């Protein structure tokens, strides 16, 4: 008598997507009606809606134009990421080869990315954004011309482009915001909208890439062609809509300002440590989330779980204006430290090798909701403490240790198999707790006169 093995599949229910959509919608549009401070409502209602054409119409035009470009860049990055994973499968790459490709990208981020922020501050963030699109255009052309492009080259180019995305567009937006003399308190809305639209764009890019890959199997055009066309559109849009210039005439002037404003300020060191810890933990998550979920042997529809994470990230970003409306008795550092701790606790539970898929997905969604809150809050703190002309350098240099740690994890855990997935996730959880400690100390050291640079 044969043994019948029941096939068990797990996928999130449709109510999960409905809950995330309704929660995001309610969080965005109900804020003006539930804020307890009427003055805050009157102030924020004038710019909380993207459809408002009130007194801040010039700012809204600027914000919409930038968010359109930022969403376009996010779609390009999302398309190339999905195509990269499909490229590994089509080329028949083994697990060791995939690890080596990831190591090459991490090494490029460490050795090349270290100088990109410095060059961005010297020559201007506009040029860095153009280079980001050029790298994606190059990768799209390589994948379209040949069926099996040089994966080493594409991995390095995409890793460098992804690293540039972390600081180039934010730095450019803040610089243009200040150049056009918009109110500094309006930056908070743009920060959380950046995370919101980026997450939505990544969901859209996943849908589009899946459609293109299925059509490619039927004999249609290469799926990288739309990514290359979007990158070309991004280059033309940047060159048409904005003009840019560098902040410093020479490297000597830059180094003098960097030493005075960055190296000598301990609060910026704490802020840099916190964002490095977040970058390390989020990067480790995207490497290990799929192996962690399928570890129990059940078949899981990963493509259906991925939007849940991004939807949770969108929901977390919508909580930023809620916390900002109560800033009179709740400091930015207080809820930011709490978000770090909650995210760290979620990964700590996962590090115990918990196998229930539903619980794992729930914990990962909470983790991403916290990250959606943390990213805009860190950007707001950067605006408080970091001069705009040194913003890209501060972000890029702070992420170098995180990328070095990721490279170490890939080599020891992925290639030599000396570290288990549970230990690696425990490291990422520990990093989040360190980030929470840095934010707590930053709150203790906070001095209001320094905020005269950028009043938020």
TrEMBL record:
Keywords: Membrane, Transmembrane, Transmembrane helix. Signal peptide: none annotated. The chain crosses the membrane at residues 15-34, 66-84, 96-117, 151-169, 190-208, 220-238, 268-289, 335-352, 358-378, 390-411, 423-442. One of its GO terms (molecular function) is molybdate ion transmembrane transporter activity. PANTHER family: MOLYBDATE-ANION TRANSPORTER (PTHR23516:SF2), SAM (S-ADENOSYL METHIONINE) TRANSPORTER (PTHR23516). This is Major facilitator superfamily domain-containing protein 5. InterPro entries: MFS_trans_sf, MOT2/MFSD5. GO terms for cellular component: membrane.
